[in-house]
């Protein structure tokens, strides 16, 4: 199956969609868990969700429970929130505030950095060393306010890959942006069904005729810039320049909708003066968690009714997400058909081929190569 992906590595890849069984094969999903989700950077929150010591975000990445905390040391910590005693989950998926993680089973307690705080009734076991007992750590990085996690604790740093994005968005002043809304939802489809859809505007004409399509005043074409196997920049030219109220955008920048994809499943896009992030993380082979948020310049919110803006952005993203979800869940339901096969792609979707190439790079590289490059 992985062999079938190699064609996308050619300089002239065939304009064909993925072989359908790549969306349903349990073997391929196992390989994706190990070779992609076990060692890739994923954007999972904005720092506004982890502002104070004790704030945490908990989620699952391809079946692996993950917690990210703001520790009492003020730093972000990533960890596997599974009790080291007898495998009880320490926290449910979601977000909140806590002093520590207390296991509901026999009440072992862990600090926000994953080290053990106390274990009940364990003194009589000489083999148990509390100092050596801690939750396995994951790598965490914050870039321009966005919080990324990588299950590989010694992963190579992410920030160096983002120079192109930083350059394109310098005038958006991401550091001065505030997250006005954030949301999480579940789509009943394979993660690749959701991600390939996010690499093209072509579907705006079908799924989003009244929401996204009107924003594409210059048409649905995308310029694709591949910075690295991790970062793809997708630029859409607008017909009418936007008129920013607070951002110092150049004439050129006023006519571009910026959109970035970070392999495997995270993205960032500008809509006028606001910026939206979205990440599509597999929960299982046929379910995907969609996490995202909308940011606005702090200066644009001064004196404004922030609650009304929050409701408005939530409503707008909610409508677009529902349009995508209903369409992609319908695609997912066809995947068991005996009559489906690879389809021809349009010149309007070069981004999709960029995604397939990155997928091939991640899955088809030499199996013998050591992990942890
Ligand atoms: S499983 Fe957590 S304390 Fe026993
Ligand atoms: Fe869409």
Automatic annotation (TrEMBL):
It comes from the Bacteria. GO terms for molecular function: 2 iron, 2 sulfur cluster binding; iron ion binding; monooxygenase activity; oxidoreductase activity, acting on paired donors, with incorporation or reduction of molecular oxygen. Keywords: 2Fe-2S, Iron, Iron-sulfur, Metal-binding, Oxidoreductase. SUPFAM superfamilies: Bet v1-like, ISP domain. Its cofactor is Fe cation. PROSITE patterns: RIESKE. Pfam families: Rieske, Ring_hydroxyl_A. Residues 41-149 form the Rieske domain. This is Diguanylate cyclase. It comes from Streptomyces resistomycificus.
